[in-house]
Specification:
24 helices, mainly alpha, about 65% helix
Length: about 425
Amino acid sequence: MQLIFFIFPFLGFYKGVKDFFSAKYRYGILFFAFWFGYSVFQYSGDVTRYASDFSFFAQYSWSDLWHLIVNFSDESLKFSFLKRTTYNSKPDIFAVTLGFLVSRFTENPRWFFAIVSVIYVYFILKFLDEVVRFTGKHNTKGWRIYFAALVFIVPFYVGVTGIRFWPALFLFGIMLLRYFNTKEKKYIFYTLSAVLIHYTFIVPCLIAMIAVTVKVNRRIFKLLIFMGIVYVLLSSTTSSLDFIKNALSFFQNDTISNATSGYVDEDSIIKKSTNLATKNWYVVWRSNLINAFFFSFFILDFFRLNKWKEIKQNKSFETVYCFFFILALFTFNLGSLGRFVYLFYFLVIIRILMYQAVNKNDEMIRLSYFFVPIMLLHIIVSFRAGFYYVDPFLLISPSPALLFVQSPVSLSEFLIGH
């Protein structure tokens, strides 16, 4: 049976998900992750740029790699004699280091995507283990629903199509939860390891450090939450673009400007607004409903407007939970930095899991009735988007065949023609 899982990776993945809490089937998920990364259909976005730029590593020596690492934050020195590529253009070292190491034994970028995919999925599995350690494992229907939401809230394919941010997200989550589980402050320091993968994680790392070292009055949280909500309302209107531009006017230094390019610069904000306007209604509603549910839950929870049985308080979690809601508000319309809302998603789902463990009342059941259709829409839309990056052969071919054969069309094109 186990040999079949190795030969047909999708079967191994299915079994690994079906029996998720059985450690002996975890290898099926990781094996599938390898082949998904290796066979990823290079449709658009980062994955195509990383594939195209992989060839530049053939020109690199070990001293070139060292030069990029020690000068990772200095644009003038870093590119004094090396070409700017997708791998080295930002002030972090994960992608360029891994890409260089992979290039020492192959010129095929598919091996890079395969290894990235395994690292990403490994981080997800360790993150989920830490969640179970923190909340406990419960066999109630409600607990299983929200644990499944934690598994599927991040679209499955983004660890390969978004090389840096998503592995950093789960690594940060692992270290944060280890702090909650152990109370050892070294894990808050270890969250900085996420910065090596994606430099923007310096923001949540600093917030986490402040949250566990500084006692913050609830009145300050209330003020920040109010300001954040006002900001979201203002920055969600077209007329507020000037407001955002002015708020970002301090990005004058060339190094900072280059680092923030594609994240909080004016072009990225306009691009995000344009993309949002052209999306299908169900894509827009998916995001709106998810945000409305989680933001509303936080408000009910923070202001004690619910009738649920109180859970055992964890002061560190409470503080970090509030800080990351505020971070989600203030980065909500800031281009790619809006992805930090997923940190808040993680924490609010963990919070609900904690409530589910001690509440069996009708209010918690009704909460699930609201949430399930919202989450199902999210899963359907994200899986549908992911089909553009899936090679149909991954689902039906023996794994050795994927080394030699790739489909000329994506799973999306194969199923519906586009």
